[in-house]
Amino acid sequence: MTRFRSKHFAVLRKFYPLFMSVIIGVVGYMFAYFYTYNQQQTLTVNTNHITLGKIDNLYTSLRSLSIAMNAFITIDCEVAKPGLQEIVTRLPNIRAITLLKDNKPFCSTNEHLKPSDIPPITSDNVAIEPRSFNSYLILWNNQLYFKQIAHDKNMNLLIDVGHYQVLKDILVPRTPFQVIMLKLKNHVITEHGITDTPIKLYQSITERSFRNYNFYVKTGYTVRLDFFSMVKYHPIPLLIVLFASIIAYVLTHWFIRNVANAYYELQSAIKNGHIKAYAQPLIYSHSGQLSGLEILARWHHPKFGLINPDTFIQVAEETGLIIQLTQTLFKQVATTLADYADRLPDQLHVGFNISREHCKSLQLVEDCKKFLVQAKNKTIILVIEITERQLIEVTDMTTKLFKELHELNAKIALDDFGVGNSNLSYLNNFAIDYLKIDRSFVGHIGSDALSKNILDSIIEITQACNIESCAEGVETEEQALYLKEKGVTYQQGYYYLEPIAIEDFVQHPMFQKCLRP
Ligand SMILES: Nc1nc2c(ncn2[C@@H]2O[C@@H]3COP(=O)(O)O[C@H]4[C@@H](O)[C@H](n5cnc6c(=O)[nH]c(N)nc65)O[C@@H]4COP(=O)(O)O[C@H]3[C@H]2O)c(=O)[nH]1
Fold it and tell me: What does the record say about its membrane topology (predicted)?
């Protein structure tokens, strides 16, 4: 987790929520932009394909029809006409079929057809001109015609497809600002008809007829996709992004405020001496004598009273305040013990819980040296309790740290053993002096066979590795006797004494009894 430092907090508090919301906003906008862009692109490709297919089909079906109609060209109009009429009535898009001779109508289903109604084939009247050059799709006077030149060049077929709405319908775009263009030579047809004004299209795609007819279909957008067009035409993704950005601001603000508050509160608690050192005795199993004490932090909160470490140690670790917190405990314990410096028993164990953060530099060695000077007693054995829950990496730095701690005659204890992630190599790497057996195993003595077996195994490991052991959470005489019998070196728990303030601890008969006269 991110470590927060005091000098960063003021700046962080102000700018971090804004920064987060801008980041979410920018990333969200990019995401919304590319999403919309992709959507448009996919739609363009699909639309272009479908349109191309429809025009191809239109042309091909007219061509097939005209081929079928070729049979009528050479027969008499009276014979041909009923057949042509039946076809016109059956096919909804065909308005009339006309047979031409020398480009003049000689037989038509349209009774009112005049020679001037026959569309000329010029480069201007927009014809779809296939490779075979013998059939044309003609746009003329707002009408769509199909003309088939028969083998006999004088006898031709003209199919009047009707108003070229048929074509226009095919060119109707799927979304606003989309334009579908049919490009024939220099001419362009859109849903609005023939246009010679160039239309600039964005995200466009142009494809030639699948059947290799001489036309192109181009689809694209008249509006470029940018921030403003997104705001105007695609507001929903942007509204979602705006919403996410506001949520990011609010959550970050809330998070920073809470962490910062916790940080400031804990920092001022340390400064104002509200973090107190409590002590709990460690007892030699074999003699029942006091071997030392473990120091545990308590917060004497002016409003909430006594707060147990479970609530604030994590905050202290996450904010980096744990080092200051431990230093204040070192100082309180050293100055209290200094009053008894000359009377302390030899090799009194004084254990402190040390977090991983504190082991990242040699600061801990300096703190221990300072403690021994302030306590004015060089025989005290400092016990550095590192927890198995927060494994410390083996690096050159940590190896040096633990070596220097051992040179100070300190002992390294591995706390909460049995519930964390360590393995036996860990014991070796840091030259662990004793294991503190988690109270969850001790609590099951006499009841849960499995936990008891684990407990027995842990004790056997300590004996096999020739390291000392300390059982935590001893609450009953039965547990105390069992652990003694099993050869556990030290015991700690409410059975002997619960943690009490260090000033009270030094007054306690258990401590007083072990002082030298
Ligand atoms: N049920 C039961 N509990 C017993 C008994 N005897 C002792 N305890 C409790 O067991 C915990 C033993 O401490 P720990 O394993 O080091 O576990 C400690 C330690 O990991 C951490 N902690 C406490 N003070 C500090 C500190 O100054 N620095 C750091 N880094 N961690 C600390 O907080 C944990 C909890 O501390 P506490 O709440 O003081 O809880 C203490 C103690 O009050 C018993 O017979 N029965």
Answer: Multi-pass membrane protein
The answer on 322 and 216 residing in a single domain is no
Both structure tokens of 342: 């000359």
pLDDT tens digits for range 226-259: 999 999 888 999 999 999 999 999 998 888 877 7
Domain residues for 352?
A: 274-514
Burial class (CB in 10 A: 0-12, 13-18, 19+), 417: buried
Residue carrying structure tokens 């007693």:
377
Same domain, yes or no: 281 and 418:
yes
Same domain, 197 and 290: no
**Residue 180: strand pairing partners:** 219
Nearest of 220, 127, 242 to residue 174 by alpha carbon:
220
Q: Is 443 in the pocket of ligand 1 (CB under 6 A)?
A: no
CA–CA separation, 430 vs 41, rounded Å?
61
Domain shared by 207 and 320, yes or no: no
Q: Domain check: are 15 and 103 in the same one?
A: yes
pTM of the model: 0.61
Rg (the chain; Cα; Å): 46
Please report, to the nearest 10 degrees, the dihedral formed by the alpha carbons of residues 56, 61, 66, 71 taken in order: 140
102 lines ligand 1 (CB under 6 A): no
